[in-house]
Amino acid sequence: MQSPAALRVIHEPDPGLDLDAAERAAGEFLRALGISLDSESLQGTPGRMARAYAELFTPRAFDLTTFPNDEGYDELVLARSIPVRSVCEHHLLPFTGVAHVGYLPGDRILGLSKLARVVEHFACRPQVQERLTKQVAGWLSEQLSPKGVGVVIEAEHTCMTLRGVQATGSSTVTSALLGTLRRDARSRQEFFALAGVNS
C-alpha cells in the first residue's frame, strides 16, 4: 500500500504586506512617542522594526511527514521543552517559553521535528496563549487522528513583566487535552508527569 503524500503546510505571504508602509508607520509611531530618529543608530530603526515584525508574523512552510505505525506503538509520544515565541495580540509585546506536546498514536506516527513546526506555525501571528494551546492540540488531532493529544505551554509574557503590574519572573501555564488524555485519569497523569508539569 502506498503511503499518503505528506501534507505541505504553507502560509501564503499576505498580499497586503507592505514593508515600506510599515517602515513609515514605525517611524511615525516612534516620533509620536517623542523618540528622535536623527541619530545614526536610530535612523534605520523603523525599517528594522518593520522587518522584525514581518518575520515574527510569517511562519515557515513545512511538510507534515507521517509514517505508518507498523509496530502498533500505543504509548505516549512526547516532545518536551519546544521553544515558543509569539506576540501578545493585546499589546504586541513578545511572550516566550516552552511547549510540551504529546500524542497517543493511531494508525500513523509523526516525524518528531514536526511537533515543533506545528507549534511555530500557530505561534507566528498575534496570539493569546490559551488559543495557541488549543490550536496546536486541535490541529494535531485533526491531521493525525490519534487516540489522544496533550499540549502544555509555559510562557513569560512581557506585557505582564515589563509593564503594568511588572510581575517579573511570573509565568503562565495553559493546557489542552483531547481524546484518551482527557477522558482517562491515568493517561492524563502520565502525560503531565512526563511533561514535568504538576497536575
UniProtKB/TrEMBL annotation:
Coiled coil (UniProt feature): none
Keyword hit for Metal-binding: yes
Domain GTP cyclohydrolase I span(s) in chain numbering: 23-194
Presence of the UniProt keyword rRNA-binding in the record: no
InterPro entries: GTP-CH-I_C/QueF, GTP-CH-I_N, GTP_CycHdrlase_I, GTP_CycHdrlase_I_CS, GTP_CycHdrlase_I_dom
The family this protein is said to belong to: Belongs to the GTP cyclohydrolase I family.
Subunit and interaction comment: Homopolymer.
Protein name stated in the entry: GTP cyclohydrolase 1
Organism: Amycolatopsis ultiminotia
